[in-house]
Design a protein that fits this description.
heterodimer, A: 313 residues, mainly alpha, MetI-like fold, 13 helices, 0% strand, globular, B: 496 residues, alpha+beta, D-Maltodextrin-Binding Protein, domain 2, Dipeptide-binding Protein, domain 3, 2 domains, 4-stranded antiparallel β-sheet, SBP_5 (chain B)
Chain lengths: 313, 496
């Protein structure tokens, strides 16, 4: 297990190094000189030159990279080119917002997806199973922003049950926090729910026809215990989908954060891209890669717990 | 179903209507387009930072609704006879939130900080030195006469911060000012909501009628409009397309021109593209574009069709000049032929996503003159960096509501969009600029109007129209738009 953990951590570190290095050079190549965008309409060439010098953009690119890298490994991502605030502070403020929505959406998708997956797996030709088929087509066809807008129009504008925009931190108000993340989480979770339910249903049907299930039934186990055995064997594919979905939801959060005006890492990524704030983009890249590595690592651990064969591999 | 269950459960825990619906309290909730750039006035933007900074800082000079400088922390001022020294008398008894007093030493330190600032420095480019005359008086010494200085100071370039906070470089993290409100960090969420609570005592308390001010940065126009519809906001930066819906809701709608849209020429002497050096070619281009039609089709009709860079309604604006280049394609072709370009010429122009709305019109109209455009695609950030390296480009540029500032910012000074003002190559223009520099008041304004006529005659730019900024507010609240401020400061948001 220790060897397995070390191997995963090492591959994660290599992934982090490769992605962030590539991001650094690609961002500088794509954005070039960001001073005009940062200073606005009235900037003179002299002001732009002064800002270039202040930001260290007059140095060789390799020197800039080493400077950024040597600080980044110590957790210091520098300061934003737009507002000159420490990037670590900005990311620390925004990660809880995105995580609140994405974790809530993932939990919602897991719980509802599990229930629907098992129910449709047990009755593959029932009404629920047919409904799931229809829902999977419809929800995949609908764009995320459209679903978000419908939720806002019905539940925020018409019924006024939830706020249309904004985020309330958990430390300010528990119910305020829950109300502010409910609609974004549902908007984000809908697609994931049908995907997980479909995976689980397919896995359930596959495992249900295997010899060991027939043996379990022949030994007189209750159908509840048989279902649990089937579920355990059918779940790896759904768990993998769930982990992939979590990472995907981090990306999908950009749209939801814009529609609901949530100050998460998605909206920060968008605003930093627009003005060419490279240090912020690099900080966000590091955080996202760390999320991906950690989620994949946790997935491996859970899969190993569910299925001992994985541990041996 | 799931949403309904959640809503019922949450409604049991809290009063949903209290935070989502409109309520007749003394607070105001404002939705603006952008987050605050910086709490440090030297690093802040004039454009959208106004509402945030005006809550926590007092300026030395403010503007009235007609953009005239009015007293704030500077109670009066006077120029020397050569207009190279500006003496300001300061308000007494003002304290910053950290307990420091506002006095001449504090004002000097602030102005030096602003002069050195990466974003504020341009305003003070002509300032040579700032000195304390006595504890309540300062003198600003200028390298040369600067008729736009007080306007820019009032626009948002003279916010006064605590000298101790400037020295300790604390302003990037939090504001320390003497403004009418205090920043309520406990109720604020950076990037989402900023809450300000009115001070019990402030020297200008009557100008600020709201007990609390909440500002929500909402970059997406649809999200902003939804927040107005749900009652979360009672003032918002608006999208023109939503005006009919706003009218149906009975909201107040306030608009004013904020930018000019058209083609900016960067090579009026024909150094890089010979045809542009011929005024007949520039005039032909002006005649070829139907600004009113472009305003209607691309600009949603939200603005004023004009060919001037002085804002419509401004003292230097001359409505009679708008007929100078009436749409006339035949005349445009004749002018091209007279200039020796009956078959047109080739030109490279930059293009990025935000200007694509105008691209087909430009391609087609210039094509009718035989001008073949090769588009160079680039990112929006690169557009601003590279656009002026092309002989002409599609521009959306901010307007200023002060004639002297318009002359300086749009015509004579070197800017990213105007790297070669080349005024010296136009003798009549140079002479007018010399006279403008030597005069003040009504005499100067008359000369600026003549300059406006001259640059129009020289087809200095090809302006199609001036585009509006629009604000919605619920009944009982009014917003007074100010050209030059993308979102007005709090003194322009009132009950009524």
């Amino acid at each position: 297990m220790i060897k397995f953990t070390l191997r995963r951590l090492l591959s994660g570190a290599v992934l982090l190094l490769v992605v962030t290095s590539a991001s650094f050079f690609l961002a500088h190549l794509a954005i070039g000189d960001p001073t005009a965008g940062l200073l606005g309409d009235s900037a003179t060439p002299a002001q732009r030159a002064a800002l270039r010098e202040q930001l260290g953009l007059d140095r060789a690119l390799l020197t800039q990279f080493w400077d950024w890298f040597s600080h980044a490994v110590q957790g210091d991502f520098g300061t934003s080119w737009r507002n000159f605030q420490p990037i670590s502070d900005q990311i620390a403020l925004r990660v809880p917002v995105t995580l609140s929505v994405v974790v809530a959406a993932t939990l919602l998708a897991a719980v509802v997806g599990l229930a629907v997956g098992v129910a449709t797996g047990l009755r593959p030709s029932g009404i629920l199973a047919r409904g799931l088929k229809l829902a999977s087509v419809v929800l995949f066809a609908l764009p995320g922003f459209w679903v978000s807008l419908v939720l806002v129009m019905v539940f925020a504008i018409k019924l006024q049950w939830f706020p249309a925009v904004g985020y309330v931190p958990l430390v300010h108000s528990g119910t305020g926090w829950l109300r502010s993340i409910t609609l974004p989480s549902i908007a984000l979770a809908l697609g994931a729910i049908v995907m997980i339910a479909e995976q689980l249903r397919n896995g359930f049907l596959q495992v249900n026809n295997q010899d060991f299930v027939r043996t379990l039934r022949a030994r007189g186990l209750s159908s509840r215990r048989v279902t649990l055995h089937v579920l355990r064997n059918a779940s790896p594919a759904a768990l993998t989908v769930l982990a992939v979905m979590f990472v995907g939801l981090l990306g999908g959060a950009i749209v939801v954060e814009i529609v609901f005006n949530l100050p998460g890492i998605g909206s920060l990524t968008q605003s930093a891209s627009q003005i060419g704030d490279i240090p912020v983009l690099l900080g966000l890249t590091v955080v996202t890669v760390v999320f991906v590595v950690v989620i994949n690592f946790l997935l491996d651990l859970v899969l190993g717990w569910v299925n001992p064969k994985v541990r041996e591999q | 179903m799931l949403v309904a269950i959640l809503a019922l459960a949450l409604a049991a825990c809290t009063n949903a209507g209290a935070t989502t619906g409109s309520r007749p309290d003394d607070g105001i909730r404002i939705g603006t387009l952008l987050d605050v750039t910086s709490w440090d006035p030297a690093k802040a933007d004039i454009g959208f930072d106004g509402p945030y900074l005006s809550a926590v800082y007092d300026p030395l000079v403010a503007l009235d609704k007609d953009s005239n400088p009015i007293p704030a922390l500077a109670t009066s001022w006077k120029y020397s006879s050569d207009r190279r020294t500006l003496t300001m008398h300061l308000r007494t008894g003002v304290k910053f939130t950290d307990g420091q007093s506002f006095d001449a030493a504090a004002a000097v330190q602030n102005l030096k900080h602003l002069k050195a600032g990466v974003r504020s420095g341009q305003t003070y480019a002509n300032v040579d030195d700032v000195r304390e005359v006595d504890p309540d008086t300062i003198a600003i010494h200028l390298k040369k006469k600067d008729d736009a200085l007080l306007y820019y100071m009032g626009l948002g370039r003279s916010w006064m911060a605590s000298p101790a906070a400037i020295k300790a470089e604390q302003l990037t993290a939090r504001p320390v000012g003497s403004g009418p409100y205090t920043f309520n960090t406990g109720r604020s969420t950076p990037g989402s909501q900023y809450v300000f609570t009115k001070k019990a005592r402030h020297w200008d308390s009557g100008t600020y009628p709201f007990g609390t001010v909440s500002i929500f940065p909402i970059p997406d126009p649809t999200a902003s409009f939804n927040a107005m519809l749900s009652g979360q906001l009672n003032v918002s930066y608006a999208n023109e397309a939503d005006i009919p819906h706003a009218k149906r809701n009975g909201w107040n709608i306030q608009s004013k021109v904020a930018t000019w849209v058209g083609l900016q020429f960067t090579d009026r002497t024909g150094k890089r593209l010979k045809p542009l050096g011929d005024v007949r070619v520039r005039r032909a281009i002006n005649h070829a574009f139907d600004g009113a039609a472009i305003l209607k089709s691309v600009g949603q009709g939200a603005g004023v069709a004009t060919n001037q860079v002085f804002p419509a309604g401004d003292a230097a604006y001359d409505a009679s000049l708008n007929d100078r280049y009436a749409f006339d394609m035949d005349k445009a072709k004749r002018l091209m032929a007279e200039a020796g370009y009956p078959d047109g010429f080739r030109v490279s122009m930059p293009m990025s996503s935000i200007f694509q709305g105008w691209q087909p019109a430009v391609q087609q109209i210039l094509g009718q003159l035989g001008i073949e455009v090769t588009w160079k695609n680039m990112s929006p950030a690169d557009y601003q960096k590279n656009a002026a390296t092309f002989p002409m480009f599609i521009a959306v540029l901010a307007l200023d509501s002060n004639p002297a500032a318009s002359v300086d910012g749009r015509i004579t000074s070197r800017q990213w969009f105007n790297p070669n003002p080349s005024t010296e190559a136009f003798p009549e223009l140079s002479e007018l600029l010399r006279k403008i520099g030597a005069t003040t008041g009504k005499e100067q304004l008359a000369l600026i109007r003549r300059l406006n006529a001259e640059v129009t005659d020289q087809a200095w730019q090809n302006v199609w129209y001036q585009a509006n900024n629009t604000y919605f507010s619920i009944k009982g609240i009014t917003v007074t738009p100010i050209t030059g401020m993308m979102f007005p400061t709090l003194r322009f948001i009132q009950r009524g």
